[in-house]
Input
Amino acid sequence: MIPLIPVAHGLLIGRQDLPIPQWLFAWGASLVLIVSFVALSVLWRDVRFETDRWRPVSDRLSRVLVNPVTAGLAGALGVALLGVVIWSGLSGTDSPDLNFSLTFVFITGWLGLVVLSVLAGDVFRALNPWRAIARAVSAGFRLVAGQPGRAPLRYPERLGRWPAAAAIVGFVWLELIYGIGGFSSVGLEPRKATIAVIVYSVYTLVAMALFGIETWLDRGEGFSVFYGMFSRLAAPEARDGRLGLRRLLSATTHWATVSGSIGMVIIAIGTTTFDGSQEGLFKSPIDSLFRHLNDAGLGAVAAHRLAESVFLALSLAGVAAIFWLGVLGMRSVPGSPPLRELGSRFAHTLIPIGLAYLVAHYFSYFVFGEQAQFTYLLSDPLGNGSDYFGTASGGINYTSLSAAAVWYVQVGALITGHVTGLVLAHDRALAVYGDVRRASLSQRWMLAVMVAFTCLGLFLLSQSNV
Amino acid sequence: MQSRNSRIALALGALAVAVVLFVVLSGGSGSSSSGGGKRSFSFEFKDGQPVGGVQDASVNQGDEVTFTLKTDVDAELHVHTSPEHAKDIKAGGTGSVTFTADASGRYEVEAHPLVNGEEQAGVQLAELTVNP
Output
């Protein structure tokens, strides 16, 4: 029997967006060019975002929001939700879309925390269940031993943030490649995903014990680094237990100083590019590679996963190549720092593009996923017919978002990300080159990078998978 | 200072013109086709595969859609809209579902073979595209 071509599609929601129509694609692309030239003409001359500006909010507001009780509650909430994920994943139904755990992990958590981070700052730091557990254990140790525990190993600094980047690639691979599972739309089984959650939890707790809680959170824990990156776009930040507001975007400028940070931004864009193209642009190349691998004797599921993995790697490499070609071009401007340094100094300018890609690709998926999360998945987390909160009979209403609403959000996100990226790149160029003339010269290259990413994003949205 | 303000004004002006043009032009080209028609599609499920491959079922929002499946094993015809539409069909038989396509988007139409009444993993028959 000829092996079937596996059906790949969104894991938990049986609906996909319509491609953006041609006229909107044309308009989006022209708007990107107009905006870019306008941006070039209104260039400012003084660096604006590099200095650290943080102003405390009123004492009362700070005390209400940031105090030991709220910190404890947030940590407890994080641990409780991790517990619900493990409980529902292990004892609930095998149907991916009817089990609380998968929608919570891949939609509410994974995408919802991006939204929260961008709006309210580094919320995940407070909610992070592994941090909460590690801190509780560490406090217990201090109580018993009478002295604080010390990390037995020094973190190898040359690893930078690469362990975190690897964790995020692994997570996305589990969702987009392993989870599609071969011939059918069975998707990732809740039980397998939950085992992955448990394995990652143990790995994270052990790594924190070995290298120190804060070191691992800043370098190795994928989700902390990923959400921390997006939280830099937001204004709110707590410093020494005091809540304050920083200038919007300014915190991004100090983010990419650790090696591996570039990897994290590229992963945000590259994995989304892969997800957007696996059923459009990449569909037939993936199918043909699958056939070759299958003919060569590889089992169908393994051939499918390998073929997809190859194209995920190609997506990441392609995104990295676009960025580094731009940096290479910039290097030709007199007075440029060495290539690697130049690259890491401009890495943060891609954070808004990464956010734009996520919004453009997952906006409707997130909205519909949350409708499921807060109706039947909340009241019937195991999918066994219980109705804890009386919302079990509710469900997704696909008419709640019109096609046009989705299209405008998608194109609007890409253009906003484009402009924000240009703003950050111009500001950084002023800091790197010192004068407007050379800064502008260098920014022709970054402009090309941004236009490339934004037009690629529009192109992916305009692709139909038929 | 004045030159900067005037440049910002110019930029905002250009943006405003672009937005107005966009709204005017998109209104014309974005007009949707009217639904309300009746559309039917038939599939055959044989040897675990859809005969003739995965079909493209494109309809307009508001259309009344009928999917008919002929199958050589016990199977459930399943349309992944919300609410979902499903019909159990006996081996060698034919069955159909009819519904109004009220939400735009792309949806999977699948056949789930039934073994001892247990629903198996779905095999895609068609992609239903509902145009606004």
Q: What stands out?
A: The longest helix of chain A spans residues 300-330. Chain A has one domain: 22-462. Residues 22-462 of chain A form one domain.
